[in-house]
Amino acid sequence: MLEGKVAIVTGAARGLGRAFARVLAEAGARVVAADLRDCAETAAPAGANAAAVTADVANMASVKAMVARAVERFGRVDILVNNAALYATLKGGRFDAIDEAAWDDAMRVNVKGIWQCCKAAVPEMRKTGGGSIINMASLAALYGTPFALHYTVSKAAVIGLTRGLARELGRDNIRVNCIAPSAVLTEGTREFFGEKHERALQVIAAGQAIQRNLQPKDVAGAMLWLASDQSAFVTGQTIAVDGGTVLL
């Protein structure tokens, strides 16, 4: 499906990012798995068709080095999956109790980080006639999740960024879409909810038409479709992968 394509996946050391990187590799893409954490375990199953890179999406020099590494190793960039985000370590609470530094960090990583990755990757996509950018938003933005306003607002900004960028890049044959999942069964979700994890998952599943919790593979299928030419006429869209919580 993706033979000859090169994909960059940020936040790929674990959870959704790891699942994305491996699914892309299984579909034939050569993959650069990037994270602040070590991505060697993510990249290992794909052997020579994957590279592990250390990258901080909030640092433009680091982002440029990540893209340069992809081009150096594999010759091009066709797919960018902007998955890296602050989530697990964010502390929830009422909006007026959120620490200012935590708010700024959420915007710097979750929004500015995507903008910077796109700035670095788009010139390489233009060279090869197009590409696909997939941004990770969240059900939090569509639902209006309270008590985590810094996260909710940052993911709403991702949707706006996706729509505006899709209009800018359409003439370059670069598609820009985003995925808005509900809480996925990952390490990050467990860390975010802490001792309320089990109860939170029960409440989330009960509010869905499909009453089970979301697995990484459920989101990876939507990502793979957006990465492939099967979605060649789809851009600027937000796909809710949430078991039927928000019906758009």
Question: How would you describe this protein?
Answer:
It contains nine helices and seven strands. With 248 residues, the chain is an alpha/beta fold. Strands 3-2-1-4-5-6-7 form a seven-stranded parallel β-sheet, sandwiched between helices. β1 (6-10), α1 and β2 form a beta-alpha-beta unit.
Helix-residue proportion: 40-55%
What is the gyration radius calculated from CA atoms?
Answer: 17 Å
Strand content: 15-25%
Which segments are poorly predicted (pLDDT under 50) over 5 or more consecutive residues? Answer: none
Please trace the helix and strand order, writing H or E for each element: EHEHEHEHEHHEHHHE
Shape: globular
What composes the largest sheet? 7 strands, parallel
What's the end-to-end separation, in Å?
29 Å
Quaternary structure annotation: single chain
> What's the number of helices?
9
DSSP strand count: 7
Sequence of strands across the biggest β-sheet: 3-2-1-4-5-6-7
Indicate the mean pLDDT: 92
How is the secondary structure organized here?
Blueprint: E1 6-10, H1 15-26, E2 30-35, H2 40-43, E3 50-54, H3 60-74, E4 79-82, H4 100-127, E5 131-136, H5 139-143, H6 149-169, E6 174-181, H7 187-193, H8 197-206, H9 216-227, E7 238-241
Parallel strand pairs: 1-2, 1-4, 2-3, 4-5, 5-6, 6-7
